Every structure is written in structure tokens, then in C-alpha cells.
Amino acid sequence: MTYHANPVPQALTIAGSDSGGGAGIQADLKTFQERRVFGTSVIVAVTAQNTLGVQGIHKVPVEMVTEQLHSVFDDFDITALKTGMLPDADIMRAVAAELAKHPEIPVVVDPVMIAKGGASLMENEAAATLVREILPLATVLTPNVPEAEVITGMTITDSDGLLAAAKKIQAMGAKNIVIKGGHRIETTDAEDVLLTAEGEVVKLASERIDTVRTHGTGCTYSACITAELAKGRTIKDAVTTAKAYIAAAISDGILVGHGHGPTNHWAYRKV
């Protein structure tokens, strides 16, 4: 019997490790797998973390981050990648330098700044470096409302504010912007706004679920966009699928941990 291997889409996540398994590298790889994409990873930080919070962060040396990037790009056919937690300016600059060598690969940037429990995951001066070095590389940028407010200096309270912030971020260099509106607690639904590079505005709404099991939603959302892009989907289709995926993951919860529990990464297969 002759063995024939089937080629599969391959994606990369550049982020921090979450020992609790609900966010970061672990959430990304679970999402890639669920979307039938082979996942590779570059770990930039190791966190001691669970559903109750972040107990510690240990940054990976910049040289090791670069070495991991070389290892992945030298062997795998990466057709989309994402960045998540990038804890300091030096790591951001190293990642940006390597990604600039691969302009053909779509880049999804999830500008992770604060963990669900409130712990800062990014050094203060790193925010400016993210805007200057990483944001212009983004094929898709996926901030939530607090992150969009930090990036733009705006206060966002409604749907018009989401779109205005998206336009301001697009002017900074990112091509397609998805601002996640789940933090706007005065609304009855969770509405996100996609502003495409062509200027199309797409509003994506899902039922707001009253739950604390939302740890890793941003990581999972952006990972699903990445997986869909790795398969050759359009930006609009990738974001639409990701919105449905995360809505299912939140609504079909699992009982894990004693704090902000993780989403259910396999829920969408049952939809």
C-alpha cells in the first residue's frame, strides 16, 4: 500500500502561552485544528495563568523568538499568520522585521493589551511600538473597544464610534479593521464592525450571552479569521465565519476553572 499525504493549509500564531489553556497559543492552536488548518507557533512569552488571573509572565529572549520564526518559515508553507500577545517593544521590532520579509502572507493582528482578569500583558512603551511597527503590517486588525480606544485616543460608546475608530485606525496603516463591540454593555447584542480596505462597512451582530466564560475570546476570534484566510477565504467571509464561531463558542459554554472560564472551542462543529 502506498501512503499518500494530503496537503493542508498551514497557519502560524505568534503569541504567549497560557498555562490555563483558554487563551494565547493554546486557544489559537485549538481553533486552527477545529477549522482544519495545521497550526504552528512562535512563543514570545510564557505565562503562569488560569481562569482567576495572571500570576506571572516570563518573556522569551528576542534571539529565541527570531530563531523560532526562522524555523517555521524555513520549513512550512504558511498561508496566513496572526500575532497576539507581544509583551515589549524589542520583541515587536523583531517580529516586525521577520514579517516584513514575507509580505505575501496575510497577517491578522490581535493587539492584546489586557487579560480578562485585568492584568496588563504589554509594557507601557510597547503600545506606541505596536502602532508604529506592527499595525502597518496588519491585513486585519482585531481590537476590542478598550484596545481601540488606546490605539486611537478616542472614547467609543456606540456604533458610530466603532466606525469612526475603525477609519482612524485604517488611516494609521492597517488594511481591514474589525472592532469588537462586546464591551459596549449598553447594547442588547454584541455588535462588531468590519471596515474593509475597499471601504465596505459590515456590521456583525450576535446575541449577548450573560456569562463569565469568555476567557480567550479575542484570541479565538482572530485565530479563526487566520485559519479561514489560510484556506484562501476572502476577508469578509473569514470575519463572518469567525463571528459565528466565537458566538457558538460563548453560547455553548463549558465548566472549566473557577473564574473567567474559557470558551468552547468545539461548539461550532455542532452548529
Radius of gyration, taken over Cα atoms and rounded to an integer in Å: 17 Å
Structural class: alpha/beta
Order of helices and strands: EHEEHEHEHEHHEEEHH
Count of runs of 4 or more consecutive helical residues: 8
End-to-end Cα distance, whole Å, is 37 Å
Assign an overall shape.
Answer: globular
Q: Within the largest sheet, what's the order of strands? A: 3-2-1-4-5-6-7-8-9
Q: Helical residue percent?
A: 25-40%
Low-confidence stretches: none
Total DSSP E strands: 9
Largest sheet: 9 strands, mixed
Mean pLDDT comes to 91
Beta-strand content estimate: 15-25%
Summarize the structure.
By secondary structure, the protein is of the alpha/beta class.
Explain what you see.
It is a single chain. The protein has eight helices and nine strands. The chain is 36% helix and 22% strand. The protein has helices at residues 24-34, 62-75, 89-99, 126-134, 145-152, 159-171, 217-230, 235-251; strands at 10-18, 38-50, 53-59, 78-83, 107-109, 140-141, 176-180, 189-195, 201-207. The longest helix is centred in the C-terminal third of the chain and has 17 residues, at 235-251. Strand 7 and strand 8 (189-195) form a beta hairpin. By secondary structure, it is an alpha/beta fold.
